[in-house]
Design goal:
mainly alpha
Length: 103
């Protein structure tokens, strides 16, 4: 349960950071970031479809930039986990890489 909560908070903060870096990607505040992280992190694909129906589609350029940032972050996590010997972090980074590359 603690791991899920930490992941949710990290994803929320990541969304806020990305909104300042990626043009066209906007998160209006921590509340929006928490809801978006919940949607993308915990809901099944059917729930995501409902989210998109309510809030609209993501522009192709925004999706490509977000995928690039996710890939960049996953690679950094894998490298850090490997360099520090933190196997849990290494496994999480590898899982993130698999997820980004299959989507």
């Amino acid at each position: 349960m603690v791991n899920a909560l930490v992941r949710w908070l990290l994803m929320s903060v990541s969304l806020l950071i990305v909104s300042y870096i990626v043009p066209g990607f906007s998160v209006t505040g921590i509340g929006t970031a928490l809801v978006a992280a919940l949607v993308f992190g915990f809901l099944p694909p059917a729930g995501r479809n409902l989210f998109f129906n309510v809030y609209g589609a993501i522009a192709d350029e925004t999706a490509r930039l977000a995928r690039f940032k996710a890939l960049e972050s996953a690679v950094a996590i894998v490298a850090y986990g490997h360099d520090t010997g933190k196997l849990d972090l290494l496994r999480e980074g590898q899982a993130a890489l698999r997820h980004v590359l299959k989507s």
